[in-house]
Amino acid sequence: MKDAAKQLIAKMGAADPSARFAVRFWDDDEVRVGDGEPQVTLRIKTREALSRCLADNFLGFAESYMNGDIEIDGDVDLLFKLGHIIDFGTLPMSWKEKARLAATYLLHRNTVQRSGKNARFHYNLGNDFFELFLDETFAYTCAYFHTPEDTLEQAQKQKFEHVCRKLMLKQGEHIADLGCGWGGFLIYAAETYGISGVGVTLSEPQVELGNRRIAERGLQDRIRLELKDYRELEGSFDKVGSIGMLEHAGEGYIGTFMSKISDLLKPGGVGLVHTIANDTPFPDDPWTMKYVFPGSHVPVLSHIIQEMSARRLSILDVENLRMHYPLTIKHWMERYEQNYDTVVERYGERFARMYRLYWIVSKTSFEYGGNRLFQTVFSKGLNNDLPLTRDHLYR
């Protein structure tokens, strides 16, 4: 078993000859790669943990880390960079785990009946949990940084402004926000651009807190959040936005999502979808689907474009904000670590380690892996009155 592990270690070393790392086994046997002191040491504390890693690759690794059977000392980013380079998450998995994951996938398909349960699994952890790492805008999606020194709150408001400009919002327009979270974007758009609108989410805590924040600002006559599946929203809107929702639509439902946007938009109306996506097809991470976002699916950009085009949504602009997400996650990680003991006290050590690992995996997947962050702007049908340039984005 160790021989197989050492072959994998050698593969990681070959992926970056400048890397210095060590792997220490439960019996103090240690393998070092590179000259000099290791930048990071992976400690595999039990034979079972190694067996899980070899049988079920990242899922086995992650569950062993959650259980405390694996520890990482030093430069965590380097270890995950090497893992992304060799595509550790896509290595063959045991047939037993494959069967279990297939059953999980079928159980969590995002039908109208099931999608609420999937959303509540994560977002109903409670507003108190998300307050531990989000800023006052309560935005839980990639921010937009003018400089790396921007505060998280600055960057989130800059994201809202960037989206508003891409949508070319005008006072008095009526907009829909699919997957509105706590309503931060609608609040910003109403206060800054004078729009009215409705947002939909499947999380009761989000609706409760979001509508309370709306009322505190005196905006309740213009904007509101509703506890509703996006497929159940009706109406006619000048603009439609969706920030960080498409990933939750689920595999097989990208077309359904685009059809709903097309139904909601007035002819010539403008929409924007802000989503994590990949350049090329890549397997969804079974660990993330099991522990963090059941029913989720990271789509491929070309598939998104294809499904939009099939519904007469005419593409106007696509922007890749990949490097903005690691900056965003870095802020969340810092806040999370400051409140780590509180997380352990409320939710337990295993959950706390799970979420810590989720931050690391997410951040490095944008830096070194296949994840991208695309903002795609489109109109319903051809609109010949739209600006000829992007000057309105940077005025």
Automatic annotation (TrEMBL):
Keywords: Lipid metabolism, Methyltransferase, S-adenosyl-L-methionine, Transferase
InterPro entries per record: CFA/CMAS, CMAS, DUF7884, SAM-dependent_MTases_sf
Domain of life: Bacteria
Keyword Manganese annotated: no
GO MF entries: methyltransferase activity
Any one of the GO BP annotations: methylation
Pfam families recorded: CMAS (PF02353), DUF7884 (PF25371)
Record bears the keyword Cytoplasm: no
Residue ranges of every copy of the DUF7884 domain listed in the record: 18-80
SUPFAM superfamilies: S-adenosyl-L-methionine-dependent methyltransferases (SSF53335)
Family: Belongs to the CFA/CMAS family.
The name this protein goes by in its record: Cyclopropane-fatty-acyl-phospholipid synthase
Protein source organism: Thalassobaculum litoreum DSM 18839
